[in-house]
Write a structure and sequence with these properties.
Strand content: under 5%
Radius of gyration: 14 Å
Number of strands: 0
Helix content: 55-70%
Low-confidence stretches: none
Structural class: mainly alpha
Order of helices and strands: HH
Mean pLDDT: 76
Length: 52
């Protein structure tokens, strides 16, 4: 039996528990997410995105 674990859902789960425990962390978690997504978008990874 193989169990595969993705990073995205695991990070979301951990972030959800942290936000429940310390609601003030929400600002930092969202800011960090946006910064990472922005950097990855500028670098041009193979992530799915809309091309206009």
């Amino acid at each position: 039996m193989n169990i595969s674990l993705s990073v995205g859902p695991l990070a979301a789960l951990i972030a959800g528990f942290l936000i429940l425990a310390v609601p003030r962390l929400l600002n930092y978690i969202v800011a960090l997410y946006l910064i990472i997504i922005g950097i990855l978008g500028l670098i041009g990874t193979n992530s799915p995105h809309l091309r206009l």
